[in-house]
């Protein structure tokens, strides 16, 4: 049985990591929208969907209704501001388009932590909670890519979901053992981000059908 974490250790950290993850994911969504030459509405939609999609899916699945994004005005304000900033300054921000994957990796790391931790708070076991962490991390990116007419990263050969799973496991195992502390969340996010950035740097790929020889 999982051990509950004192609210003092959860709430401020949970909100801070959530908002940080939303901001960097919204940034990546807005940058994709600018690359696709969408108008301001399109930029805001992709920023909102990318920043909030994974968390809303998680909350609906674990029974956290209404989702946190609809209860706290900051959850809507942050991605909208990110979208407006990107739209207004996109000629300058376009220079950092190569760093979309870096922004995406940061969001993935932050969301795999908050997703798995919130699932544990709601009484799910370690395995379902880890899967909720992965869903939180990849959900917004999947919706972003589908709306932008791209094949979602998680469905390509790139190593994407595995870093999120690794980060989520770093959360749920100490939590189950009653050893979870704020620094564990930071370490878990770091593990996920590092693995994702290494996968990008060294072009690690998952096995695919074309690589199999009969």
From TrEMBL:
- Write out the annotated subcellular location: Cell membrane
Q: Where are the transmembrane segments?
A: 12-34, 41-61, 73-90, 159-177, 183-204
Instruction: Report membrane topology.
Output: Multi-pass membrane protein
- Alphabetically list the UniProt keywords: Cell membrane, Membrane, Transmembrane, Transmembrane helix
Major location, coarse class?
membrane
Q: Record's Pfam families?
A: Gly_transporter
Q: Where is the signal peptide?
A: none
Tell me the domain of life. Answer: Bacteria
Pinpoint the Glycine transporter domain residues: 17-90, 102-173
Family note: Belongs to the UPF0126 family.
Q: What is this protein called?
A: Membrane protein YeiH
Q: Which organism is it from?
A: Microlunatus panaciterrae
